[in-house]
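wait is this the right file?? whatever heres the structure
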């Protein structure tokens, strides 16, 4: 034993040294080296017709195409390529827009090396599977709505978005952030009508979201977000989110009778303030809090 051990160790060192020496030779940068990074960190936004600046990052051909501002890859010139500048942060906003975390130094190095080597295509990879929305009646999980929120909302609703700090403090980069809300909650699990997030994407509340629309979300996308909230804003394991009892809300909508807005039953406790004599049919704004049953306890209701 005492003799065999150092020999085994030497063997291991030799194997490791061989691997180190062989690695640079094997590692002529190929598109297949960077494709997993792009798929994991970029494609959620940079794909499909709503890709920011028309820049799709879901295939070599798409990456080499001109976006709205021209090419982002200059083969052979890593430092001059917007792709590399964005992941390093030499061009702002830094990518991925969902960061931090940004890419690791090793990942940035791999992409820069690939551009420096002339951005070769290499063997064609299989095209990524197309995103499919759940059918009506099917369970909806966060993973089904995340691509919509990331692609259409996070450019602003992030700590350092296109408009600076997140509007109204509302960040939408993860399930936790979406449920937490900002200055108030935007999602009341189980109650789409009490969820300002849904009201904003349908236009019941103004300004309609996304703020840079049209285009707004498609009917099917809106349906999936509504079903997700209705089913309890479930995570990817199928667990419904808790009702944020006591959290502040602010909603806009059309008043119907005493007291509902767009079908949402309200609770006006004694002392609730009613301003500017709102009549049925009027657009109103209300502020209140989420009750234990998920109903909204109105603190103030006023005609807009
Ligand atoms: C949350 C959505 C989102 C993610 C994730 C994201 N981006 Fe972006 N990207 C944007 C938006 C929005 C813009 C436009 C910003 C602007 O106006 O400059 C943009 C712009 C860019 C641009 C500049 C395009 C041009 O023509 O000037 C590059 C390059 C880019 N992104 C690369 C990446 C890379 C690489 C990743 C992954 C490491 C990534 N992005 C991840 C949303 C995203
Ligand atoms: C171009 C930037 C931008 C984009 C993209 C955007 N928003 Fe907004 N969002 C804003 C601004 C600005 C406000 C504040 C507007 C106001 O109420 O005056 C806002 C407000 C909101 C509010 C109200 C928050 C509250 O506390 O009252 C919600 C909810 C919301 N956005 C959801 C979304 C959703 C969902 C998306 C994507 C489908 C989205 N936004 C995309 C800029 C943006």
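ok assuming it is, sequence goes like this
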């Amino acid at each position: 034993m005492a003799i065999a051990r150092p020999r085994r160790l030497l063997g291991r060192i030799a194997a490791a040294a061989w691997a180190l020496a062989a690695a640079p030779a094997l590692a002529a940068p190929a598109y297949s080296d960077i494709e997993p990074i792009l798929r994991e960190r970029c494609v959620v936004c940079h794909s499909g017709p709503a890709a920011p600046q028309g820049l799709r990052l879901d295939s070599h051909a798409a990456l080499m195409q001109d976006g709205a501002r021209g090419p982002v890859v200059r083969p052979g010139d890593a430092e001059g390529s917007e792709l590399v500048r964005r992941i390093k942060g030499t061009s702002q906003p830094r990518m991925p827009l969902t960061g931090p975390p940004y890419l690791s130094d090793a990942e940035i190095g791999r992409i820069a090396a690939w551009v420096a080597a002339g951005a070769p295509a290499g063997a064609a990879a299989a095209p990524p599977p197309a995103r499919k929305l759940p059918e009506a009646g099917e369970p909806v999980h966060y993973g089904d709505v995340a691509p919509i929120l990331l692609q259409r909302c996070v450019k602003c609703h992030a700590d350092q978005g296109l408009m600076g700090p997140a509007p109204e403090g509302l960040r939408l980069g993860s399930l936790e952030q979406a449920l937490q809300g900002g200055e108030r909650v935007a999602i009341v699990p189980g109650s789409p009508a009490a969820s300002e997030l849904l009201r904003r994407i349908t236009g019941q509340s103004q300004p309609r979201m996304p703020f840079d629309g049209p285009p707004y979300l498609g009917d099917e996308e809106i349906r999936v977000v509504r079903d997700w909230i209705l089913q309890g804003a479930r995570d990817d394991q199928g667990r419904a989110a808790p009702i944020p009892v006591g959290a502040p809300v602010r909603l806009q909508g059309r008043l119907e009778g005493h007291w509902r807005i767009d079908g949402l039953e309200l609770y006006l406790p004694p002392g609730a303030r009613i301003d500017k004599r709102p009549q049925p049919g009027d657009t109103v704004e209300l502020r209140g809090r989420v009750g234990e049953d998920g109903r909204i306890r109105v603190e103030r209701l006023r005609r807009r």
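Residues 18-26 have pLDDT under 50 and may be disordered. so i think its the right one actually
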